[in-house]
TrEMBL record:
Belongs to the LysR transcriptional regulatory family. This is LysR substrate-binding domain-containing protein. Signal peptide: none annotated. PANTHER family: HTH-TYPE TRANSCRIPTIONAL ACTIVATOR TTDR-RELATED, HTH-TYPE TRANSCRIPTIONAL REGULATOR. Residues 5-202 form the LysR substrate-binding domain. Coiled coil: none annotated. InterPro entries: LysR-type_TF_proteobact-type, LysR_subst-bd.
Length: 204
């Protein structure tokens, strides 16, 4: 049973981008269900921006460079490749990672400088690094899912979606590490509880 300290008060959580928001939304909802007295203020600050002073917990994709911040590694975001069957009828499914170079790929990241994108995949101890042709570059995983569902190409997604099939099912993209940043070594019980909850859910 949750303690009163965990079940009361406001938790201010700052998130960096759409990928993180989509991944953490169900985890935050599960945590809230276990601690009904908590309220949440969720905000968004781009990953490249400094961590805001007012947040109890700031989530970032990289550890901080500023020694003022303490980093707690939460785990990693994982993704596999998916496409619509109609796309794979038009374009035979890749049999190895290098085959992705000949496909329409859907990148999920914030910036696009027009150069081929570097995708890193792994299968157990095997690694493959390749330059892909991202016909689409989006900063929202939901947009990537919708494009893939309409046969636009191959997208990296956290989980399968209705109407999509796995591509190179033995491979996954190199996981992206997530960190929780705090400014004080002594944290409120509710903040420590949220860090523990996310760490367990995102364990590598």
């Amino acid at each position: 049973m949750a303690t009163a300290g965990r079940d009361a008060g406001l938790l201010r959580v700052d998130l960096p981008d759409a990928r993180t928001r989509q991944a953490l939304a169900p985890l935050l909802a599960a945590f809230a269900a276990r601690h009904p007295g908590l309220r949440f203020q969720l905000s968004v600050t781009p990953a490249a921006s400094p961590a805001p002073d007012g947040a109890d917990l700031t989530i970032r994709l990289d550890p901080p460079c500023d020694p003022f911040w303490l980093a707690h590694r939460l785990g990693a975001l994982r993704a596999r490749l998916y496409a619509a069957p109609e796309y794979l009828v038009r374009r035979p499914a890749p049999e190895r990672p290098a085959d992705l170079a000949a496909h329409d790929c859907i990148g999920v990241h914030a910036d696009d400088n027009g150069a081929p994108a570097r995708w890193q995949l792994r299968r157990g101890q095997d690694r493959a690094v390749l330059m892909t042709r991202e016909r689409y570059c989006v900063d929202d995983p939901e947009m990537a899912r919708q494009l893939a569902a309409r046969g636009a190409g191959i997208a990296p997604l956290r989980e399968a979606a209705p109407g999509l099939v796995a591509v190179l099912p033995d491979w996954e993209l190199e996981p992206v590490a997530l960190y929780a940043l705090t400014s004080a070594p002594r944290l409120p019980v509710r903040t420590r509880a949220l860090i523990a909850h996310l760490t367990q859910a995102l364990a590598d």
